[in-house]
Every structure is written in C-alpha cells, then in structure tokens.
Write a structure and sequence with these properties.
With about 90 residues, the protein is an all-alpha fold. It has a single domain, classed as Orthogonal Bundle (DNA polymerase, domain 1), CATH 1.10.150.250. About 60% of the residues lie in helices and about 0% in strands. The termini are far apart.
Length: about 90
C-alpha cells in the first residue's frame, strides 16, 4: 500500500482560500481543521474537503454540528474522514 501524496504549500493555500465561507460558525471549524492538519494535508483530505465546500453553508453547518450525516454522493470515506477531523475538539 502506497502512502497518499501530501499537498505542497501552494496547494494548501489555494484549498484554504477555497474554504472561505459566509457563516462564521463554519469558518471556526475550518480554521481549527487547518491549524491541526494544514501542514500535512493529503490529496484524499483535499478531495473530501473540496466535496464538503461544494455544499451550501447551512448544509455544511448541519454536518459539522452532527445534525445530519453525509448521504448520497457525499457519503464517501474521504468526506467522512475529513468531517470527523473537522468535528474533533482540540
């Protein structure tokens, strides 16, 4: 089994910019995620995070607050793993 490639600094910066949200509550979860994992983000984490960022703000917040769980096309291992990392308390 090969290790997943890590994102370089530029890729992380682009992803971080892509993650800017309209709800401050979402931004708090996202900022905490980047503080904990930003220095060593994998391509799989980036794919999961990108899928979450395609959601409307209120739907993302429902997932982050455990009001809902991912379903349909969003119910992937990559999304679930990133979501759990985002939900984790420091």
């Amino acid at each position: 089994m090969t290790a997943e490639a890590l994102l370089d600094e530029r890729e992380v910066a682009v992803l971080r910019w892509r993650c800017r949200r309209g709800l401050v509550e979402n931004d708090l979860f996202i900022e905490r995620f980047f503080q904990a994992h930003g220095a060593h983000l994998s391509a799989a984490q980036a794919r999961g995070l990108t899928a979450l960022m395609d959601l409307p703000d209120n739907d993302l917040l429902d997932l982050l607050l455990r009001r809902k769980e991912p379903s349909g096309d969003l119910a992937t291992g990559e999304v679930q793993a990133v979501l759990e990392q985002m939900r984790a308390r420091a």
